[in-house]
Amino acid sequence: MASKAEYTGTALDAVDVPADAAVETLDVRDLGPPKPLTETLELLVELDDETVLVQINDRTPQHLYPKLTDRGYEYETVEVADAVVTVIQ
Question: Which of 23, 55, 67, 87 has a C-alpha 20 to 30 A away from that of 12?
């Protein structure tokens, strides 16, 4: 199993994120539904517009996508080793 830093680095390399962007990582792999969704949305409200949120999950967060779109966030999901990593801007 890779570390949070490895998941984050691999995902950020795969998507278009400025190199100097502030990054917050949220690991929700051990949480059951709906905790990953609610914790991600709650954290996004706390972050400034320049901070990129990287969510590490054990599955594709399909229920999160429409909520991100409704709130005006851009996102991209990358499969990294044994995790699904979503980069939210």
Answer: 67
Which domains are present in the chain? 4-88 (3.30.110.40)
Query: What H or E segment, with its residue span, contains residue 4?
Result: helix 4-14
Integer Cα distance of 50 and 53 in angstroms: 10
DSSP string, 22-69: EEEEEE-TTPPTTHHHHHHHHHHHHS-TTEEEEEEESS--TTHHHHHH
Tokens standing for residue 46: 């706390």
pLDDT in tens, 20-63: 999 999 999 999 999 999 999 999 999 999 999 999 999 999 99
Burial 44-66 (b: 16+ CB within 10 A, else e): beeeeeeebbbbbbeeebeebee
Spatial neighbors of 48 by CB under 8 A, at least 6 apart, are 22
